[in-house]
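Review session, final week

We close the course with one last complete record, chosen because it touches almost every idea we covered. It is Aspartate carbamoyltransferase, a protein from Methanosarcina mazei with 308 residues. Go through it on your own first, then we will talk.
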Amino acid sequence: MLFKNRHVISMKDFSREEIDYILDIAEELEPVARGEERSRLLDGKIISLLFFEPSTRTRLSFEVAIRRLGGQVLSLGSVEASSVMKGENLADTIRVISKYADLIVLRHPLDGSARMATEFAAVPVINGGDGSVHHPTQTFLDLYTIRRESHLEGLKIAMAGDLKYGRTVHSLCYALSLYGAEMTFVSPPELRMPREIVRELRKKNIRVKETECLEEIIGDIEVLYMTRVQRERFPDPQEYEKVKNKLKITGDLLKSADPELKILHPLPRVNEISPDVDDTPHARYFEQAFYGVPIRMALLALTIGVIE
């Protein structure tokens, strides 16, 4: 499989065989991610982090991944302190940064911005999240978490919360369809999974169920992927206020769950998971955040070409 100089923009650019290979490389690198072993795979390499919208876990886990592999980080820093504030367009920024770095990680609020950046980049581009469309590195770490904590083939999973604007669940649906997952979508009517995604899944003969009630399905699933209602994606603040507290995971709810149920969340959470869930064996969202390090290490090493 050829990964060197390949852009990472959408999960739809990867086959199941390629996804499995990336997950295998991440597992090999996990001791390095935990600091148990050392690596110089990215020695002499400079990775630029261009983040045009707020991020904690994605940005920091990329930084840790780069440093654990011996590379150096070139960060845009505050957008307000950059030439973007002088009116520089994204294409020119990408052209310039390509002269400084061996790879660019881009996070941008506009849909399709990462794909557009590849037209001007002279180095590989990894999409760190663009608008409400794609967040492939999050999906890779979600798949890795599910594989480490449960299983992928034929998984019974529920995705709950903001399914309309949540780019993490959009990408995850496609990826899990490659493994024959059974999917249940739990949301208020205003935040339903986009119809085109549901239609695409059903065309692939993926079993899809939709409901507004967590209690109805909590005993029938192996993984619950919870998401926050994203205030920043709502054009109308009043619409956000109407739906922000519709779904919540509590300790009482989990009394009806399968003992092996795993709860995931891309974080940050607001109030959709009660703190009393954190210390239960179901809660895997903090470990999930760590898994972002080995998976991003794998993607960096493969796209730069230090691992084949």
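Two points worth writing down before the exam:
Strands lie at 46-51, 72-75, 103-108, 125-130, 156-160, 182-186, 208-211, 223-226, 262-264.
The mean pLDDT is 91.
Good luck, everyone.
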